[in-house]
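Notes continue from the previous slide.

Worked example: a multi-chain complex. Inputs as given:
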Amino acid sequence: MLSFLLRRLLVAIPTLFVVVTVAFFMMRAAPGSPFSGDRKLPPEIEKNIEAKYGMDKPLVVQYVSYVGGVLHGDFGPSLKYRDKTVLDIIGQNFGVSLKIGLSAFVIMVIVGVSLGVVAALRQNGPADYTVMSIAIVGICIPSFVTAPLLQLVFGSQLGWLPIGSWDGGAIPNMVMPVMVLATPQIAIISRLTRAGMIEVLQSNYVRTARAKGLPEFRIVVKHAIRAAVLPLISYLGPAFAGILTGSLIVERIFGLPGLGKFFVNSALQRDYTVVMGMVIFFATLILLLNLLADVLYAALDPRVRLT
Amino acid sequence: MTQISLAPGSIRNAALMERAVKGRSLWDDARRRLFRNRAAVASMIMLALLVLCAIIGPFVTPYAYDEINKNDVWLPPLTGGHLIGSDSLGRDQLARLFTGLGVSLAIGAVATTVSLVIGVAWGATAGYLGGVVDEVMMRIVDVLYSLPYIFFVIILMVVFGSNFILLFVAIGAVEWLTMARIVRGQTLSLKQKEFIEAARAAGLTRKAIIARHIVPNLLGPVVVYVTLTIPGVILAESFLSFLGLGVQPPMASLGTLISNGAADMELAPWLLIFPSITMVVTLMCFNFIGDGLRDAIDPKDR
């Protein structure tokens, strides 16, 4: 187990290195500069500003010094928000993304697994067909369709929920973003759970439990569900990535001050350091979560041994 | 299947068996199963209609997709000769919808082909050669797999501007990883199958083994994955278009249409509704066909 962890962490290092390198050179290859705003600066002043950030040096030198900084935990200052460092920006905005992301995560697991179990228990019955039809639709409707439609219905027509804004994370403001984030994942999870349940319910040990005369409820809850949700754990990584991607859209549509919204804007404004910082941050997060999923899987499934 | 008793060495029985086997090749079987799947058949018909609309549509509509009509601004559906209305510039939405559908389908096809070529070549090489080469190649895939690729696509689109061809390549280039994994896994397991060994023992050349036995067996999972990649690519493109990084105006894709429609949905809901429905129907068709193909090709999985 320990050697597995160590090895995975060792693989993570070159991965992050690739991330940093590719992102750095791609960002710098972009035409335009963070300092060329609406107002054209005199060339001497622009040169001075570039010199201040060390951007007058050759690209390779900049790269080495950037990587050196990152290794010391220094991601540099934002080039657009002059009084903030990259870490400030990530720290201030990650909270919002984390809050809606986590809420969506909890909801999608609970709702997805419940729907999947119900569908499997009523296999080929009306409940099954209903759940699976909804799941297909849920997978096929992109979040940027559901979000405006929800806004139209619950926001402007019925007036039940605020259309946008964060308002310190009040519950009504969170309902729609979380719903939009969770819907496609609920659909996928319910399909996975259903498939797992159907397989488990036909397995020998469930038959043994039945033969023993255990009540059906106990069989389902104690024996079947546990085994059926195991494959879900390996889906946690992609699910998390899905939420992350979704948050780019959701935060933009609902006007939430999260990281996702920040990322696109920073990329468009050539705020090199902020974009780089966020890419590194997200890559690390995904790597850690994938690792966590693998460890969890091994811990829960005695048949899997990490070597 | 009809039961055939075989006396060893009997020529007549061997001929009989050959006929019986010929009647049910892998693909015949798969085709029959696929055509029995009603959802898949309906989806294929629907998809054919959509493709037809995308190809012929732009020539049939009385307006061009980028034609601005100053007198026809914000027309609701079925008014002023615009079947599904017009937008803030008076552009005919039906023409734009057909064009956008075509662009989205084209991106789906091209990007999927890119991912198919890279993925199959990469995966088959790794799987066939095995050993250190396999180890290194798959490690690279692992590394790339754990990247937050959507961020790279965003950076890429920002860097090089929203170039049409680049969009195809960028999306295709990030979609090949799963394909490579599937192909490699298949190749690896096929290499060790008894029927390959039997073919080798029977004296078939390596080329014949690959052509007759490996490729047809590889094809199944690949075809299934291709049908499931296309909707993923279409979704990715519209996602980028929605962020303003994909197809640029006045060109249209389903993503840009939905994105524009969402902005004006209170004033002109038809701008959002029609492209949304088209998109959902398209994606659903691909998903049903993919599911149907999987059930048809992989009988174990039913």
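Summary box: Chain A has a mean pLDDT of 82. Residues 34 and 269 of chain A are 6 Å apart (CA to CA).
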